[in-house]
Each structure stands twice: as structure tokens, then as C-alpha cells.
Amino acid sequence: MSEPTTSGPAPFSTGEADDVRRVWQQLGLPGLIDVHTHFMPRSVMDKVWAYFDSVGPLVGREWPITYRADEETRIEALRAFGIRAFSSLVYPHKPDMAEWLNGWAADFASRHPDCLRTATFYPEEQARTYVSRAIASGVQVFKCHVQVGDFSPLDSLLDGVWSQIADTGVPVIIHCGSGPAPGRFTGPAPIEKLLQRFPSLPLIVAHMGTPEYAEFLDLAARFENVRLDTTMSFTDFSEEGAPYPAELVPRLSDLRAKILFGSDFPNIPYGYTHALDAVIRLDLGDDWLRAVLHDNAARLFGIPPSAG
Length: 308
Description:
The chain is of the alpha/beta class. It is built from 14 helices and nine strands.
């Protein structure tokens, strides 16, 4: 299969890269860490992009892919922006797919050392085994997509998965909020039940839990290893459909150590600079920005302060 096709101008420019770099340089950071980016097998990425191309009626507006380009161009963009570490978040939508995705992601990370070694899982008999194998091979982050996978995080077939993750502390970026459209198993209630069973689970709730912001903030406050990522949150695009309540913003300051920057690159309908500007305009201070844009993730994933 050919590389995903591009149309229009190149997906990023030197000027855009300069703008992104200026943000972290002015904060005195060595770069940014983006915990929520997507690199997938070409056939899967093509299908994901086709979904976003057709999702307009579902979300009530078009969702253009700003960084629609071949794999190497997308990697070049992140490196030009000064992204020190990123992820290859893959996720299955059916059985007998996760293990194949894990193999692809492991190979991708071996070829791109600035990518966190990523894996995923699905409720199936073999999940315990391939998750154990991924952990033994040094996986750094798992991706779980409750909405796309259309499965309950409480499925008994995942008991062995969650117990291993709780024991080893490998973080899981989990899309469990009900945005952009609710699924059969989305929302905070199943996650709260899951955490009651496995209270040490290291979950990173994607998209700040859109749109159940308050409920997922509560879970992050209650459970030591629950964090949130900023992916698409606070942007003009998200504010139009699911605005972040102003009364919750002070709580973001209180939970500074539990919030990680994520962009959803390349599948965003705006430029990378806007993802950063949306976080900056919360006006929570430079120390908060340094923690969210770099230091929290660096600590969680053991990334040294600088390349030297």
C-alpha cells in the first residue's frame, strides 16, 4: 500500500517550527514532551484519516487533518518543533489486532528512539500474554481506547492485563471520556469502578476526560496514579463543542503535577502552535507550564533533563 497521500502545501513550515521552539525556549526548557501523538501502520492510519474526513455530521463540523503527510515528514515536523519524546498511540477496534499493532509499534520505536515504546490491548484471551510480553520487552506506555474499541474496561478478559499494569506501573493513556461522541462504555463510572478494584493503576485520562471534566478531575485528585492529558482541550475547536468550565481552571493549578501535554498530532484540525497557545492562555504561570509541557512527563517516563 502506498503512503497516505497529501494535498496542498507542506504540513509545517520553518516559521511554525520557530514559533513552537520559541515557547519552550522562553520557558527555559530543553524541549517539549508530547505524550499523545499517533503513528500507525499505513493501512490503519489511512482508515483513521478516512474516519475524520467523514466525521463532520457526527460532530457537527468538518475535521481536517492539518498534518496529513507521510510518516517521515510527520516525524521531521515533531523534531523541528523540538519535541524531545512522543508516542505512537495505536489501538485495536476488533480482536486479533492488538498483538500485530504491538509488533509494529515496537519496530517503530526501535527505529525512532525519541518515540516512547508503545503498546495496546483488547479484551481477548491472549491479552494477558501479549501484555506480559510487551512489559518484559520494555514498553513505556499503553494506549486503551474504550470508545473505538467498544469494550468495557471492566471486561473480565482484561483482569490479567490491569493487574500486571498495576504491579509494574506502566502508564496507560486511556480514552474513556464521552467526547467527541459517547460510546456504550465511556464515561467516568466504569473507570471509577476499575480504580476501586485496582487503585494503583497508572491511568492518563486522554483529552482531560472530555466532556466529563469535573468527574475525571475528581478521580485524579482521589487516586495517586491517575493523571490527565491536555489533548485538544482548551482549543477553539474543543471550546466550541465542549467548553472547559471556567470554575474548574483553578483546580488545574492544584493538580499541576498530574497534567501532561498532549496534542493528538497529526490528527488535529488546527496548527500545533494553537495546541500550545490553548494551554498557555489558561494563564496558570510559567512554573505550571514547565511542569505540564515537559517536566511531569520527563519524570514519569524517566527522560533525562537534556540530551547531554
